[in-house]
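Our collaborator T.R. sent over the components below with a one-line note: 'Predict the complex.' Nothing else. No constraints on interfaces, no templates requested, no preferences about which chain binds where. So this is a plain run: every listed entity goes in together, and whatever single assembly comes back becomes the starting point for the next discussion.
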Amino acid sequence: MSGMLDDGQRLTADDGEEIEVVKLIASGGQGEVYRVRTSGGDRALKWYYPPCATPEQRSIVQELVSRGFDDDRFLWPTAYVEGSPTAFGYVMDLRPDRFQGLPTLFQRKLRTTPRALLTACLYTVEAYQTLHSRGIAYRDISWGNVLFDPATGDVLVCDNDNAVVEGDSSGISGTMAFMAPELVRGDPGARPGTQSDLYSLSVLLFMFLMNHHPLQGRRELLIHCLDEPAEKALYGKHPLFVFDPEDDANAPDPVEQSTVLATWDVAPKILRDLFTHNFTVGLRDPAARVRESQWRDALRAVLDAVVDCADCGRQNMTQPEETTAGTCWSCGSTLLLPPRLIVVTPPPRAERHLRLHRTARVHAHHLEPEPVRHDYSDGSVLAELIEHPQKPGKFGLANRSGTAWTGTRSDGTTQQIAPGQTVPLRSGLELDLQGARLTVRAK
Amino acid sequence: MSTPHWETFSESVQGINKKLNQDYGTAEGQGSTEDPLVLAVADGHGAARHARSDVGARRAVALFAGHAREFAGFARSLVREESRGGLSRLMNYAQHDMPRRLVAAWQQDVLGHWDRMRKRSGAGTPPPDTADAEKLLLYGTTLIGALLTPQLFVAWQLGDGELAVVERDGRIGFPLAPAETDLGDETESMCSHRAWSLMRVHWSPVVGPDRMPRLITLSTDGLSKSFASSEGFPRFMAGLDRRLVDEGAKEVRAVLPQWLRQAARHSGDDTTMAAGYRPPHHHAIKE
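Returned assembly:
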């Protein structure tokens, strides 16, 4: 299909940059995305379909560009481009190849791990929290707007051109399956904003971790034609969580919807409780929805408590701070919990519990009481568990930071662990790291 | 708004030495809002374990046509909401809901057929019931379907076969060609486990009548396999497009069976094409 712009067409951005259209990359729900050539290299140009190229949308894009938002988690509009008053778009970075769309995950067409998924969830929460903390509501959080790297969990939020300053009323009202029920119903006074974003975010997290939509149970299977009235009933007028503890009328079908039964079964209680609260009480009361900080705390705790099955090696989520675990979701073997590292941060004191599995690492954010952003990349590692090269099965904590640690053994003796050195892992070992206190516990 | 009037043609020929034609196809509508262009072809699998794949192919095409018209109706109701995210909702439906609904409807339909056949099977005791997966295997088929309205061009594909699109300037594209071609004769199927997740979707809103393609063809792999080299099929499409431009749909409709018979002789397979063509000097339909 020919797009709205022709290959080779030239345009000028409002910052004076000359742009040459290379080719159409994709068609979406609001416009088309082209690869374009600029003096600074190839970039992406989003161009709106005529019905979406409204004066309100133009104002939103111009406002977003003027904010100069510089955050590597967002494909943010960087320059406004106009062909005519009713034909415009914006320039943004091209999507790096390592990022994948979530539908690919839900179709199980890519390989990932529970750690990468939890990391992606945590990063997604923090990305939207960053927007909300700046008074911006995203308003169209859905699986089409978040990309993730299945190897690392890094996320990239795209289609940011629906984000507006909280309170603005113009533009899109969201994707129905992700919209808060009060917006689907069109309740008087209901507007897309941070509270409705929190609902959409929870749907997205549920789909990340459970591979299913939280309201698509038996009732959805009974709908023969999913038209607008049916969608409104399912997501707005009569929404019912598939795991509502008080009402099983929309429970998952054991054959058609077996995936969500399996994923829910292996999810730790701390996450199940938040989802249950959000999709029961939070369905009816927007003010009672789970906040980003609650999601962040729960997700990082679960991420630090993922353990590897000793038999098959698959990663398993466990309930943080529990001293016993169930069985492996993959092979059914009883899970053995590795030793635990308890981190007490400098004031205001916060406690973190890390399971010391074979590839466990302590990152800079573990030592901060209120980290602005979690970072599980190689660049933020302060300590990592390594196996003794000559004594298989013996592990130690290697100092990957730039400063020496002080270690105190259970007998009270102390030692300095210089950068690059390793301290043998023993129950009762205490380490002083940049003002944080780390203690090794057997369970 | 005036919409081009689309000409349609659909033809299917049986492969050499085959007992019956397991392909099926349809081409319906004029491309208007009320009468959208609906194209579909299905290729029932050939092996003995797919003994009822001709039924599976027919049902897949019929169910697609029904679902596509229903989708067009949904699109009609959302057009007025385009600036409020109507198109985004349609895209979501096309990419995620439609494949699930189509596969579920087909599976339910052919399981119903299996039950009816079981009850009708002679005067004696009916054959024993078997697992649903075994029954579905009997009806295994591919499916390619396309829908074109004045606002939208959407296509879905599960398994092999080709969707070819000739743009207004004569460029030929294959928007649903898989990243990696299936090796051998194994293909993804309506009877596959989680078949909906294997469906490829082409989504392309129409930004103006002058930007529409001029030819859309759907064909089963009996046609593309009949060419000795990979360039053969695009060349055939270019030739088909040229004949349509030079001689019109009526002439092509008359010779198409002969072309497909020739292709079926080379590939040995059933060969089916369903196509929509937009004549250059069309009679516009008032929308």
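Summary for T.R.: Helices of chain B lie at 53-79, 86-120, 132-138, 221-224, 232-247, 249-267.
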